Amino acid sequence: MEFGPHLLLATLEGAVTAAVLALTAVGLSLVFGVMRVVNIAHGEFYMLGAVIAWYVAHMMGGHPALGFFLALVLAPLLVGAIAVLADVIILKRVDYDPERTIVATIGLLYIIQQLTLMTYGPEARPVEAPFNSRIALPWFEWGENGFQFYYPWGLSTTSYKLAVIGAAGVVLLGVWAMMTRTKVGLLMRATQADRDMALAFGIPVERVYALVFGIGAALAALGAVLIVPIQQAHYLMGADPLLLAFIVVIIGGLGSLPGTVLAALFIGLSDGIISVFFSPTLAKILATLLVGLVLVWRPQGLFGTRTA
Amino acid sequence: MMLELRKINSGYGAAQVLRDVSLSVAPGEILCLLGRNGAGKTTTMQTIMGLLPLMSGKILLDGRDVGALPTHEVPRAGIGYIPQGRRLFTGLSVAQNLEIGLQVRNSGREVLDEVLDLFPRLRERMSQPAQTLSGGEQQMLATARALCIKPKVLLLDEPTEGLQPSMIEAIRQVIVKMREAGVAILLVEQRIEAVLSVADRVAFIENGRNGETMTVAEMRANPHVVDRYVGV
Q1: Least confident segment among A90-94, A226-230, A252-256, B198-202
Q2: For the domain B1-76, what is the CATH code?
Q3: pLDDT at A308
């Protein structure tokens, strides 16, 4: 394949990574922004989403689309509920103290991971995509007859991958609308700006925290349900998304949702492109290097605001 | 009495700041807390708001024990707080900051209109982010936000700190209007002349304990008392 079609393919693969990464990272960013909690267990909520999706799809039977769409609703709800419980039972009890919440969420990471290993097992299991038709992609060239399209061999994507990108976009728009257009979003942003003043103006901060932690985890779970027809569900699959989500959130600016989405696009696309042309390892090295550079020259992130 | 503190004790963690502090403010009265830095004025206000734990004692609002309420229920009982340093919700617009005030007790649009009539300058700035306002406008917004609660009690912590004289006068007029409307006002203010011009009574506070409480007329007659509690 020539360079041009090759690049298009890599970009599309990267866009799928970016879409799922954006969902996961926005969840992490929301939790950090509003609650100031660094949630190390975020990747495990992602993994739980994928595993629950497998259970739902497996038990449902019938047409694959049936199980998948049920999982798309059930998995985020269940994972969100688990996160709300974790918030009320653990994080609230340590008073959301920054250091103690890090240790607490590390503990939560191992509990979720090992419970999944004990019940779901060590296998990687696939979930069938609800639809998965191959779409050949055209490329163009200047030939003897001037400008013309043709379909290079191997240049294709699937309808499902395009749907993942679209679905992530819709969900992100939904999150944005919730934060900027609804009352609950207003209360979340006020809590993010000044927790004590939120309390002094009647905002039930504990309930806001539980809700935000639940929504953050549900977003990760949703990302995982979308990716599981492409990647399979496995009890260790949470590590990579956690690392990438942290990279994205640091580059984008902690607590800044637009920054997080832009950084997810950048990291996801570059990860896809560099992986195809060079190696996945180099992609991770460069992303981590970028985090180092951002931390040195712009510690608040590209879109973050510097606060005390 | 509208607001009554009965022998309250509070502080930060193990560090106790307030010891058996008692105060009372009547409806339509301005009580000014005076004392040196670190005497416990701001701590008193934060304890009333439930932001610091009440170790013992009672806080009564119109006879209701608000000291026992969860923190976010305290403003819903009718206490408006204008904290030191304004502490607006940054990132939110002027309108959204006021919206937060309105939702506390489900105040209607007519409350917002009344408040904006007191601060016409805010009306022109409704869509502007709160942190881009000038210092005086920020103080207006912090005050307006608290008034959106339709409070029975107002707590003002150094409302004129760092403001130019015209702004100080504007804030003072609003405080006086609130007194006329029957609101009980607890005011922390460092500048003695500002205290004399608005307050009805003055309560001195020293090392977290009550000092003397007197009317402004008595304070004028005994300037040495002021020196004792706030002089250097």
Answers
A1: A252-256
A2: 3.40.50.300
A3: 40
Pick from A56, A116, A59, A123: nearest CA to A82: A116
Contact B178, B25 (CB under 8 A): no
- Structural domains for chain A: 3-297 (1.10.3470)
Distance, first Cα to last Cα, chain B: 34
Q: What is the pTM of this model?
A: 0.92
Candidates A95, A191, A201, A207, partner chain B, best to mutate (most B CBs within 10 A): A201
Q: Which residues contact A171 (CB under 8 A, 6 or more apart)?
A: A23, A219, A222
Instruction: Give the distance from residue B222's alpha carbon to the nearest chain A alpha carbon, in angstroms.
Output: 37
Tell me the DSSP string of B30-93: EEEEE--TTSSHHHHHHHHTTSS-EEEEEEEETTEEGGGS-TTHHHHTTEEEE-TT----TTSB
Question: Where does A23-133 show beta strands of DSSP type E?
Answer: none
ipTM: 0.94
Give the mean pLDDT of B86-98: 96
Residues of B whose CB is below 8 A from A201? 75, 81, 100-101, 103-104, 145, 149
Alpha helices in A120-182, H assignment, sequence order: 159-181
Cβ pair B72:A190 closer than 8 A:
no
Helix (H) or strand (E) holding B185: strand B184-188
